[in-house]
Structures are given as C-alpha cells and as structure tokens.
Amino acid sequence: MADDARAVIIGGGVGGTSIAYHLAERGWTDVILVERAELTSGSTFHSAGLVGQLRGSVTLTNMMMYGAELYRHLRDETGVDPSWHEVGSLRLASSKARYEELQRQAGWAKTFGLPLELISARDAQERFPLMTIDGVLGAVWLPTDGWLDPSGLAMALAAGARKQGVSIRTHTRVVGIGVERGRVTGVEVETRGGERETIRADVVVNAGGMFAPEIGRMAGVTIPIIPMAHQYLFTEAIEGVHPGLPQLRDPDNLVYFREEVGGLCMGGYERNPAPWSLDGIPADFNGKLLAPDMPRFEEIMAGAIRRVPSIADARVSRIINGPEGFTPDNEFILGESEIRGFFVAAGFCAHGIAGAGGIGRQVASWIVDGEPELDLWHMDIRRFGGQHWRSRDWTLARTTEVYATYYDIHYPNEERQAGRPLRLSPTYARLTEQGASFGEKSGWERPNWFEPNADDPRFGGRAALERLRPTGWAGEHWSPAIAAEALATRRDVALFDETSFAKLEVTGPGAAAFLDQLCANRVDVPVGRIVYTSMLNARGGIECDLTVTRVAPDRFLLVTGTAFAQHDLGWLRRHLPDDGTVQINDLTSGRVCYGLWGPRARDVIAALTTDDVTDAAFPYLTARTITIGRVPVLALRVTYVGELGWELYAHTEFGVTLWDTLVEAGEPHGLTPGGYRAIDALRLEKGYRVWSSDITPDENPFEAGLAFAVALDKPGGFIGRDALVAAKAAGPRKRLRCLVLDDQRSICLGNEPVRIEGAIAGRVTSGGYGYAVDRSIAYAYLPPEAGIGARGEVEVFGEWIGFEVMSEPLYDPAGERLRA
C-alpha cells in the first residue's frame, strides 16, 4: 500500500502534536502524524508539566513566552483542556553567587519584557508559606509562569491539528525512512495489524523524543540524545497547600515544587544521574515507567525537607521515575539534518513542555518558509559538527555531566570536562609544554591562554597584570596571562593555533557563480583575493559570516568559526545545484591554521622564506602559496585581531614542524604563544563581530555595521538582496553600537539591559576588556537615534553603570597597522 502527504511527523508527544498544529495553522493540512502507540505514551505523559519562561537566551525565552500565551487559549480554541494553571513561579537564592545569578536574570527580564521581580526572602515566604527562609538571600517572582497537564497539552494540540485536516494515526510504527540522492522520500510504516505501508513525502519530521536516535539511524543521521531517568513524587494533601500556590525552585537544594490536588509535586536533579537503556529502548516501552530508585532520590528528598519541612511527614501517593531525552549541552535539537527534508525536533531536556508551543511554531516556519522566525543556532542540529558525535561514549559522558550539573551556577567561559581530550591539533604536545590552559569547542582542545605568560616582565609581571582582573563573575575564569598575550600581540608578535577553524573548499566550474549568488559581497574576484562576506537568508538576516579566498579559477577556500562548520556546510549544501558543477569538501581536519600577528610578524616571516612578503608584493587581503622554512604554506594576509600578519595553512603532517619553525624564528622578536581569550579581547578593540551573538539571522548587515561587505549592485543579485534593498529604503530599525563603560572593572557578559534616558533601549550582545585601549567594552543594538556620544546605562548584576557610545573601532581606527 502507498499513500502521499506533504509532510509526515513521527511522534505523538507534545513536540510532534505542536508541529502538526502549527503546520496546519500555516496552511499545510495534508500532513500525517504517526505514533507507534497512543498519543503521549513516550516521555510526555510522565513529565512534571512546569512552564518557566525566563531562560538564558533571547530566542529560548521568546519561545517560552509564546508557549505560555498559546496555552492560555488552547482550551477555548480546541475544546480540550490542557489544565493551564497560571500561578507564577519563585526561584530562590541560598548563596551569594546564586543571588548574583538572580540579579543577572532580573536584568535579562527587562530586555525580554517579562514582569520578573527581585524580592526578599520574606516576600517569597508570603507567596509560598510552607517554605523556610533559612539561608535564603532573596528570590525572583514571575507571575505569568505556570504549569499544566502534559498529556492534556498534547491532546489539545492534536485536536487543533485534526480540526484543520491533519491525519493522526496511532499504533503505526515507522520501520524505514526513504532517502534518495541525499533527500528524504517518505517513510515505511507498520500498523498494529502487521500491514506495511509506504507514505511518500518531501518532508519527514523526527519528533520521536528519546526514540529520536533510533529513528535518525534509519535515515543515516546521528542524533546525540541519551535517555536519563528523572524522578519526582506526589504527596497526599498537606495543610496550607492550595491551587493558587506558585511553583518553587530552589536550585541550591536541587529541587522544584508545585501543587497537585492539595498536595505537592516535588522533584529535582541529582548529582548521580542514571542513563537508561543505552543499547536500545525496548520495542514495547510505551506508556511505561521505571521502578522507583529511592537511594538515588535521597539527595533530592534531603534538599526538599530542608526547604519545605512539612514534606517530611507527608504521605507519598506516587513516585514517578521515567526516562527523558537529554542532549550533551542541555539544548533542544531542532532543524533540517544533512538529509534534505528530514527535520528533527527532539532532545527536550526536561523543559520540552514549556518549549512545546515555541518548538512547534519555529519548526513549522522552518519547513514552510525554509528558515525559522528566530535565531535558533544554539538549538540547531548542525551545531553538532564533527564525526565525534557518532560516539555514544562521548555523548554519554557529556550528557551525564550536563544532567549532574543542571542546577549549578555556570560562570562565563566555564569549560565542560567530560569526554576530553578528543580532537587534538598536531601541536597539542607543544602547547601543553608551553603551559596552555585548554578549553574545548566542538571536541577540539584549544588554548584559552598560556599561564606562564602571566609572568611576562614586559608588562610588569603577574602582580601588575593581576590588577586588571575583572570584578564579579567575569573574573572567575580569567588569568593575567590573557592580558599579557593581548598586549604582546599589539607590541611585538604572537602566534595562535587556530587549527580548529572550519575550512571548507568549494570547487568546480560553477563554483564562482554559486558563491556569488550566496554571498552578499562580490566574491567573483581575481585569483589570490580574499573577501570578507556574509551569506543571508531571505529576510536579509546574517546566516553565515566568513572569509572567501579564491585560490584558483575554479577553487575557493571558505574559513568560518570552529563551531559553525556543519551549520555553514548545511547552508551551502541546501543551495547546491543539481547539475554537478559544484563540489564542497570539508578540509578542517586535514589542515593546520596558525595566526601570526603583530607589528613584528613580517620580520618573523621574512627570516624564514625567500618569497617577497613586503606590503607591495603581498598586500592586505591577498593570498599566496609560499614556503616557510621547509614547509609549503598557503598564506592569507588577513586578521581577526587588527594587526599586521597572516593566517598560515599547511597540511596536517607539516603542523609540528611549522609551529617549531615559527617559534624558533620568533624568539628574537619577542614572539608569544597566545590563546583564544586574548583573540576575543583584541577583536573587541577592533569592533570585529562574532556570529551567533553580535550578528545573527535576526540582523541584517546594515544594522550590524557591515554595509561595506555588501555589493547591492552585483550582477545577478544574491539571496536576501531584495530584503536588503527594502531595509535600506526604510532605514535601520536598530544599529550595533560600541559602548565604553565608565567603570573599567565592570565587564558585560551578554544580555545585560541597556537604558537611555531611563527607558530600556536594547541589550548587550557581547562584552569584555580591551587591554590596549584600557577600557571595558560592550556591544549592543540600540535605536538608530542613539548616535556617537550618546550616554546611557547598562545593568551589571543589579548595578547601573554609565556608558558612552563611541565611534569604532577603538583601536587603530584608520586600519594603518594591519595594512603596514
């Protein structure tokens, strides 16, 4: 038997039903949802149902806010009651650091438009009288949070989808997924009676929850999700508990509470998590729970009694122990996979009920419009770049760490430790010998700084540099070596191992036309030219931010950020012509990349090569193949720190020799090995943007101050050009501005509210310290009328710090040093 549909959704939990509901809302009614058992028989039915809106990112918070608004009217719209209780929520702080976290969250809320209020311990107790306030320093109160019945939510969404024509088939198990030439063609299903059927479709959505990895393997797609057993309990009636009692979260005691039929629902996140069924989920595990694990729950119960003593004497009516799908970074997995038309919406990490509404809307937009409405990079399946994600051991180690630290305070620049080290540059041993303090990104070990540099006498040594340590959280994962490396780059020369940068090769007779259609800047340039450019979506938003180097008439090298390889590859492949005239290769692991930058960089290179590296022969934004010592190198005269220098690319087997050659030749010139934290400080001084924070798919190049990298008059146009023309005619809605704070030791970490003349005007996108300009720097999108010289304030952990909008870049505004 065979059937046809515009889209097939696999999974009948809150994710699948929400996507079905929102696709139907967008006019896609020829949709089939298939569920292996009954609706909500996976993780949905045993979820605790809490809906908290404030999250650590703008996008996720917007998704949660949309969900709460949707849940308010679902009963009236569909006739099915999801049992929405808008009782508000409290989040407690029982330590100084936790209170600082609440202050930071209160600041975020101002930029999100959430009515969150920082209150005293006594005020919190008035709202939740059963709690003790021993050790409580304060709390935040959000009156629009609530909770609901997860199964009721899924049933309401399913009812809404059915009303608009969606077909929902229960007891229909997917047994195969069709893929031809990299595109999905449909699914093969088996019904309860054993009949097999093929459903042809151009779009298939894997909303299988903890079953998603199994479903993904049918299409050859790796989905890094680990089922983790999560426990909570219900008590019988407790005196003082009533239906209007707010949710209560006490992360310092690892617990959460809500009301349930006059009693309490209580659960939490223990330090010794329990991964479940790693070798495959049983085929009949539908609508089932696991046996209670009371020894593992003791830590949670102890914390609950400390905060709500009456729970110690309450009678427990039920203990729920059910597996839920968690990801290695505690974020959703959403979006189109490397198989065209095969979408994923899974890995809900215990906040899928709160996120279900927003997930459905964004995935539906992604399917219908080709892109989501919001910047979903931190949830995009493409963030899991690299073959290491195929390793269950790696995924298990990182996911277990994430669950065990779910309620921990996570300071900026914190490094996860599980599963390391894994991906190593050829210089790893050398960097270790030189005292590197490593961080990790996309599995790569990368030097954040080199601790011996803190003692550099050129800058007064450790004691002098220690005085630059930022106050508060920004000073937690910091070393004076960062300052030394940044200053050494400006004064002499520094060497950075950037091997983890993503290096993509686009080749073929159609390569130039292909890239010119994708890029906002003109990239059909002479061989040896380097072009900085963006790739835009249809709205004119910045999807990719990279350099394009033409190394041959039919060959281009694209360099982008370490974490963005799969994202940018996905964007390129999505637009690849079918005629075979363009090929794309990922060269990342096969090439080293070293950044040699500083006023004495040419002295180092010139001593090692017979090639002419003068400015006349080798100008800025050009590339040449040269020999350094004994090593053949592709040298790009480009910089992310704003100094004279080169990015040097060589095949991996030459990596150690090239590094040693540069270090030895650089010694007489004061060469310093540098890390990524210094690069970030240097790029702030030069106003260089970071994709995913300063620039995202929500901003266009004009708003981001990148008009110089746009060629509107380019023959043939490019994707997003029409939107940019319209945006230019309408004028900017906002502009990215450079702010210099009055207090040099106060450092912005991102998302802090910015106000001008007493009104919230924007939020910080990124911030840090500029060691060469001796300023605390932040970037923020502000109204266009907030021009150079405008004054305002930014809230840093509850304190409003004055700032001035400055002309950028702060360092070397004429760009004379990088063109020397």
Give an account of the 3D structure.
The protein has 18 helices and 39 strands. It has 820 residues and is of the alpha+beta class. The chain has an 8-stranded mixed beta sheet. A 6-stranded mixed beta sheet has the order 9-3-2-13-20-19. Strands 30-31-32-29-23-33 form a 6-stranded mixed beta sheet. The mean pLDDT is 96.
What order do the helices and strands come in, and which of them pair?
Blueprint: E1 2-4, E2 7-10, H1 14-25, E3 31-34, E4 50-51, H2 58-78, E5 89-93, H3 96-112, E6 117-119, H4 121-127, E7 138-142, E8 146-147, H5 150-163, E9 167-169, E10 172-180, E11 183-191, E12 196-200, E13 203-206, H6 212-218, E14 226-235, E15 247-250, E16 255-260, E17 263-268, H7 294-307, E18 316-326, E19 333-336, E20 342-346, H8 352-369, H9 392-404, H10 428-433, E21 436-441, E22 444-450, H11 461-466, H12 480-491, E23 493-497, E24 502-507, H13 511-518, E25 530-536, E26 542-552, E27 555-560, H14 565-574, E28 583-586, E29 591-597, H15 601-606, E30 623-628, E31 631-636, E32 645-651, H16 655-666, E33 671-674, H17 676-686, H18 721-730, E34 735-741, E35 753-756, E36 759-770, E37 775-782, E38 791-796, E39 799-806
Parallel strand pairs: 1-12, 2-3, 2-13, 3-9, 5-15, 13-20, 23-33
Antiparallel strand pairs: 4-8, 5-7, 6-7, 10-11, 11-12, 14-17, 14-18, 15-16, 16-17, 19-20, 21-22, 23-29, 24-27, 24-28, 25-26, 26-27, 29-32, 30-31, 31-32, 34-37, 34-39, 35-36, 35-38, 36-37, 38-39
